[in-house]
Amino acid sequence: xxxxxxxxxxxxxxxxxxxxxxxxxxxxxxxxxxxxxxxxxxxxxxxxxxxxxxxxxxxxxxxxxxxxxxxxxxxxxxxxxxxxxxxxxxxxxxxxxxxxxxxxxxxxxxxxxxxxxxxxxxxxxxxxxxxxxxxxxxxxxxxxxxxxxxxxxxxxxxxxxxxxxxxxxxxxxxxxxxxxxxxxxxxxxxxxxxxxxxxxxxxxxxxxxxxxxxxxxxxxxxxxxxxxxxxxxxxxxxxxxxxxxxxxxxxxxxxxxxxxxxxxxxxxxxxxxxxxxxxxxxxxxxxxxxxxxxxxxxxxxxxxxxxxxxxxxxxxxxxxxxxxxxxxxxxxxxxxxxxxxxxxxxxx
Length: 348
Prior knowledge:
The chain is α/β, with parallel strands linked by helices. It has helices spanning 5-12, 24-33, 44-51, 53-64, 70-95, 115-126, 140-151, 164-181, 193-207, 213-216, 219-233, 249-252, 265-274, 288-297, 299-305, 312-315, 319-347; strands at residues 16-20, 37-39, 103-105, 132-137, 156-159, 187-192, 239-243, 259-263.
């Protein structure tokens, strides 16, 4: 395994590699492979229970001796886990003068639709390190929180984006907030490709929709490329971040663009092991026949592909957003359950 694939991508293209929800060992491997930033989310600690159990259980045991409130404990466990990553990326942040080395954080998903809670979490997490980045869901409450984060110059990663409408609305709001306040903190807009494909697959299975796997696999990247072109054409001062990858193509299909893509280490390993030539795919055109078929068979593809396909009030209830958020809720409840179980064991 040569391990230099991502270094070659960085040398030959403007595309960049981020690592998602890493264990301690995977964090070191990712940094060595060229990761420039890291994403975490509300399911991070539950994933560490599988990938890095000794570490996360030690953190939980220490925290629950210091607080009797499980909700407070969950926040502190997540903060400590994210800070471990921040500390490891801090040298890169300092060497790049704040260009790289960020770690995104997104708190308790049960409070996603409370803008005040989102703002409080961003302010609280900022105290962990100067390379902290707030992860804000692009739903109505997140739009409100974004303005406050711009006013506070907090770096922002806009997440849970599955549609062109969400991306455009968030970018327009950021531009207005930046002009009003004079602040332009780093601003990334995600597009969640793989989970969108996963969602359409679930719809197809549930509703008996027949569609070739190779057509279905183009859905997320098709919308992502359209979003990328639109953001560039309009001159938004943002960087598009690919997320929610479910396979190597969710990275390799974006290579060549001024795009950053966050992937799990298992996916990164697959890409490294394949060690393929660096080929620019960002300008590849999805066959019109595939777009037509996806539009005809999935109304949710239409809603994501069209700029006016969703209104703000529909963002939170949109099917792919719900699927993504449910995974966060599941992970967060697993963390709370582990906290409760270990607290009970300590009391015996």
